[in-house]
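ok trying this again, last paste got cut off
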Amino acid sequence: MAQAQPAYVERPRRRGRRALVVLVVLLLLLVGILVVADRVAVGVAERAITDQVRQEVAKQGAQSAPPEVEVGGFPFLTQVLNGRYERISIVLREVRGSVQGDAISLPKLDVDARQVSASLDTIRSGQGEVVAETVHGTATVSYDSLAALLDRPGLKLSEKGGKLGVTAPVDVLGQQLTVTGTADVAISEQGKVSLRFNDLNAEGLPNVPVARTLLNNYARSISIDVPLPELPFQLAVREVRPTPDGLAVTADATNVPINSAG
């Protein structure tokens, strides 16, 4: 009898291990189902918000390619139940105003909406407001598009030491000289990008007053205010700075509806 005792004790241990394995498998299956359901819900919400953002962009007089929307934060379903989302990222490409004129288009506008309020009924039906506490937008204006707007043959723009640099061939008193220099970049009261070329020089410039006057006149001729397209979501431009890729535009807004309320 003493030798049979270990076999008698082992059976419940094996049954316990089997039950634990079954429990772990069931838990993993449940977690997997919840994750799949969470991701499916994200996809539904992203499609709904995409449609609403498209309407809002058109309503505000801007034009762009179809918006690309990504809802952040995990788990998503708890955000749905609370009616509050951590982050919604929106990408708008080829943003331009309804009236082009001389306004320059933005190849890409990245919009980051934080602490977004939207009820479940709004997401499901598209009726009601989707409001973000803060909206931050960033875009880059290419130097080629700016140079085309200035319309000076051979003129090239680039970033030089954190400033907007220019290089251009200029005829001064019958001599073909290469002009170089930098510009001050700022935002005007009208929300335009102000370019002011105040520091131009040219190697070999004749040492006569009229030559310097001609160079100054050229600087004034390429100093312009560049109109940007009307930005959606009430975004107001706060900063423009030269970068290696182009002029980086930063805009923001607060308490903004990012959809057209039904």
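PB: full thing came through this time. The first strand starts at residue 62 and ends at 63.
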